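User: Quick sanity check before I run a bigger batch. Here is a single chain. Can you write out its predicted 3D structure?
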Amino acid sequence: MCGRFTIAVNKEEVKEYLYHQFGIEDFQIDYFLPRYNIAPGEKIIAIIGDGKGYRAGLMKWGFIPHFQKSEKSAYKMINARAESIVEKPSFKNAFLKRRCLLLTDGYFEWQKDGKLKRPHRITLKDQKLFTFAGIWNNFTFEDGQKYATCAIITAASGREMRKIHDRIPVIINPEEKATWLNPALNDPLKLSELIKPLPDELFFTYQVSSIVNNPRNDNEECIKPIAVK
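Assistant: Done. Predicted structure follows.
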């Protein structure tokens, strides 16, 4: 699964990425950056397509399906499995009609070592910004506020990445982002072809401090490598 991630860059770098990758010029959202330990239930940066272009905004991480009438499932459905996303009533409608990309530059996963769980940060080899594949749905909360809620799509890890965890977030290939965000595309077979895991050799991993275990810790110490004995 993917239960914690980072955007460890400043707002100017985010704006530059959104402009060069998606042609988005008007990202004026009040969002504190950098973020070193983003947790479920928080607002995260998402990109959607409307058939004419792309928009960036904030979504709450924790998908609530269209048929849900209360908040009881909020923040629990943080991931959607690629292998079953078309079959799950909770996810199918959003997979076919409401797909997004979620901005990040790395995520955390906990490797089991006996009774211990050792946190690792995982980035792309170039350690630059990229996007997770996601699905979203609007939900009106009990206080009357309406938010888009979202989940990160995950797939089975490759041989090397499985040494850390057996699931990995799906990262859409850059040349397929437009296809993924095209709201007119609702062919489940074509969409399923897009949500394959990237090869292991494209990732960079390193062990980090256990301070990342507590989501209240959101500082640069969370992403610093630690010496491994």
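Residues 101 and 133 are 5 Å apart (CA to CA).

User: Great, the batch can go ahead then.
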